[in-house]
């Protein structure tokens, strides 16, 4: 009987907490999603933990539902981390190759990545990921996998992703108090890219836009490497707030209106379409026009996309990504979003759903699940490695590099 490994991914969002459970057979590299659980989040605001106790209870409920669905006991998971506190910066590292014969091995790659960490980290921040972009050997640039090559000088250009220490500790504490051990802390947008982007899209140049409830994360790939990372403090909950103000109703009713009748492109909505508020909530009075609702939504969506495009301009990629923009997350379900994205970004656009996995669960194509399932994919890429204690993340996240570099660096990480 072949060995089956269970991998769990836990996505702690401001609106929902989601867990995906994957089954990986030793006979192949295809992961099968056997369990999905989604519960309302509590104690999290704008991606930041506000109440440890409430977060712990919400995580426990999510895990309990996943355990009932799979019939398994789940006591460890890959955990996503996000929030507007996440920042990134570029860095370079240089070392001399240690061996007399000049052959570059995994420990040389580890040393050059450690050298790249010698950057000025903001106070009360710590490094989450060091993402290598490209290596250079003796002035020969553009090398993606230096292991096995020869040279005397090894350089790396890397993207350093940092998170606020207090937030990292609070997330870690909440997950551990819920009875879950942490296999790895992974940037949420990085996890989402694992399940929603193809290697071809990453090579051509693509922007992943993960629209959550309180934040919108941007991840830009080019030639298979991460070019830019940012987290914006605005998300789909801000659209709900605008609807509540514009239609003079409460937040809960505004959310129902958005889900049932919302559209981001007013031109696609009839001018004279009126909706009786009692169809949404019996206690409400009056009516609203679907065109007016769409105009409210469009204004906020345009603002979010303008903020994203400003980031793209900063890295010289506004309107210059052949694979376009892929939108995932809870906010990606809004009708008309792709149409507005094509117009505002002047690029191809589409909705990102989980790919590269198998499942008998109908809900698997939900764009809101890309992060949780991406965490399972992240674990899949590292399932051959021996378990290691949680607590040091600096060399994690070698997205866009060969499996050999990724695996060996993780094996030799102290």
UniProtKB/TrEMBL annotation:
Recorded hits in InterPro entries, A to Z, give: ATPase_NBD, Cell_div_FtsA, FtsA/MreB, SHS2_FtsA
Q: How does it sit in the membrane?
A: Peripheral membrane protein
Task: Tell me which species this is from.
Answer: Candidatus Komeilibacteria bacterium RIFCSPLOWO2_02_FULL_48_11
- Predominant subcellular localization, coarse grouping: membrane
Protein name per UniProt: Cell division protein FtsA
| Membrane is among the record's keywords | yes
Subcellular location(s): the record lists: Cell membrane
**Biological role stated in the UniProt entry:** Cell division protein that is involved in the assembly of the Z ring. May serve as a membrane anchor for the Z ring.
Q: Name one Pfam family in it.
A: SHS2_FTSA
Instruction: List, in alphabetical order, the GO biological process terms annotated in this UniProt record.
Output: FtsZ-dependent cytokinesis
């Amino acid at each position: 009987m072949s060995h089956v490994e269970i991998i769990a991914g836990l996505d702690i969002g401001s609106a929902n907490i989601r867990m995906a459970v994957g089954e990986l057979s030793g006979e192949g590299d295809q992961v099968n999603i056997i369990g999905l659980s989604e519960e309302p989040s509590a104690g999290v605001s704008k991606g930041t933990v506000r109440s440890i106790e409430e977060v712990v209870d919400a995580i426990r409920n999510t895990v309990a539902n996943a355990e009932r669905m799979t019939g398994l006991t789940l006591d460890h998971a890959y955990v996503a981390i996000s929030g507007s506190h996440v920042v990134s910066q570029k860095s370079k590292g240089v070392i001399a190759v240690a061996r007399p014969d000049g052959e570059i091995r995994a420990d040389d790659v580890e040393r050059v990545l450690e050298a790249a960490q010698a950057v000025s980290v903001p106070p009360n921040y710590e490094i989450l990921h060091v993402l290598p972009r490209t290596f250079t050997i003796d002035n020969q640039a553009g090398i993606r996998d230096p292991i096995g090559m020869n040279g005397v000088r090894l350089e790396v250009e890397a993207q350093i992703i940092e998170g606020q220490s207090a937030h990292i500790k609070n997330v870690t504490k909440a997950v551990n108090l819920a009875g879950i051990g942490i296999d790895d802390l992974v940037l949420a947008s990085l996890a989402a890219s694992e399940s929603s982007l193809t290697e071809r899209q990453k090579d051509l140049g693509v922007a992943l836009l993960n629209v959550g409830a309180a934040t919108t994360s941007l991840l830009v790939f080019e030639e298979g490497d991460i070019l830019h990372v940012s987290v914006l403090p605005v998300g789909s909950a801000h659209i709900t707030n605008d609807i509540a103000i514009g239609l003079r109703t409460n937040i809960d009713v505004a959310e129902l209106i958005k889900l049932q009748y919302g559209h981001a492109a007013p031109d696609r909505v009839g001018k004279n379409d009126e909706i009786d508020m009692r169809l949404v909530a019996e206690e409400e009075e009056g009516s609203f026009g679907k065109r007016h609702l769409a105009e409210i939504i469009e204004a906020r969506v345009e603002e979010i996309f303008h903020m994203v495009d400003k980031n793209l301009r900063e890295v010289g990629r506004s309107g210059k990504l052949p694979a376009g923009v892929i939108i995932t997350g809870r906010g990606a379900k809004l009708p008309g979003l792709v149409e507005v994205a094509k117009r505002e970004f002047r690029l191809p656009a589409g909705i990102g759903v989980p790919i590269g996995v198998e499942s008998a669960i109908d809900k698997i194509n939900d764009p809101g699940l890309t992060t949780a399932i991406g965490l399972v994919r992240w674990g899949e890429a590292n399932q051959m490695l021996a378990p290691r204690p949680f607590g040091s993340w600096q060399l994690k996240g070698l997205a866009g590099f060969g499996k050999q570099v990724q695996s060996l660096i993780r094996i030799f990480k102290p």
